Amino acid sequence: xxxxxTSEYDYQFEKKRVFFLIDSKSFYxxxxxxxxGLNPLKSVLVVLSEAENTNGGLILAASPxxxxxxxxxNVSRQRDLPAASELIKVPPRMNLYIKRNxxxxxxxxxxxxxxxxxxxxxxxSILDMTxxxxxxxxTPLSVxxxxxxxxxxxxxxxxxxxxxxxxxxxxxxxDLEAKKTxxxxxxxxxxxxxxxxxxxxNLSSVWSIGKKTELKLNKMGxxxxxDLAHTNPYKIRSEMGIIGEQLYALSWGVDRTDLxxxxxxxxxxxxxxxxxxxxxxxxxxxxxxxxxxxxxxxTRIRSHHKQTTLVSLYIGFSxxxxxEKEESGFKKQLRITPTNDSRMLMKIMTxxxxxxxxxxxxxxxxxxxxxxxxxNYSQLNLFETPKQxxxxxxxxxxxDKVRQKFxxxxxxxxxxxxxxxxxxxxxxxxxxxxxxxSYE
Length: 440
Prior knowledge:
The protein is of the alpha+beta class. It is built from 15 helices and 15 strands. The chain has 3 domains: 19-159, Reverse transcriptase/Diguanylate cyclase domain (Alpha-Beta Plaits); 198-251, DNA polymerase, domain 1, CATH 1.10.150; 269-430, DNA polymerase, Y-family, little finger domain (Dna Ligase, domain 1, 2-Layer Sandwich). Helices cover 37% and strands 19% of the residues. The strands form 4 sheets. Strands 5-6-1-7-8 form a 5-stranded mixed sheet.
């Protein structure tokens, strides 16, 4: 690999800022360890999802020692676990993890204001410490250690911290350096880019670069981050579009994101998807789930006073069906008359399913309502009288109000009590996993 010893980019045009990218180390496993009075760094523990939903049970999290001693990763399954007596297996408790996440972020808020804190995921947060770090220590490094100590004292959780002159440099410092250091802190300045970032030749080990992207870059003669930084940016843009432009900026550690800048998001679709608890092969049972999901998403768009004009149905085949047909499933769209009526959408989605399903065993279902419009008038159709249309609207409104006040399971459609229904069981899940309100 060619050595790039100097940086030709003029960083004088980049603001000198201080960002912390903080990760709660092995978060789920650490929370469970603390709850059991164990040290998160020394316990041998895995958080294991329900077997019936994941073809053998999926490892959601593993403690550092479980990973080190037994090679357990978050893509392992229950059948891959060793028969070790010291290995503690526990079910997920998503409500507890959310509670701890909120507690930890509240601690962060004592070091920076709300506008400069961004919870990035359930176990990662970005803090813009540019204007506040000097209030808490002599250096950003000393402040990071103070935050680690505070969170450790109040929650028992260890933190890994990446410090950078930009958000992306903080992320790179976290992933590439902090997780390997004794104090769990890594620091990437612009001046560190040539010696710390450019020598990396395993491109997919860098945040935001996947295997497919790595292959595309390799075909362009780009075999290291240094190569990427010294390739004509216009060539990268022409080959890879906006993604190429973003990768070029990453290779120089440039990221001008302002956490305080409020971005107004505009969603033009609402969706729901689920992994079925088993392979479904019976048409009537599959349609029960489709109807439940069609109703759930219809409820969501009504709550936002929207109607859909474009519906999408995704059907994912079972593992056996994928091997047999060499297809993962199908996704079909249909343009419809504007509506948010549950009964009508349930029929539309089941009709779409019947049209394209060829008796394959399925394991995944997804529903999306897009091209939304404001629900400011009713669209009459040839199949209902105005009186029937008004009646359907009133029924939907009553169901929505009851569910909003007493919960989703307080008033269920009869279809959910049919064989194959999943809505009642899934109502107790958080993020697709057990909420786990009690200690077990």
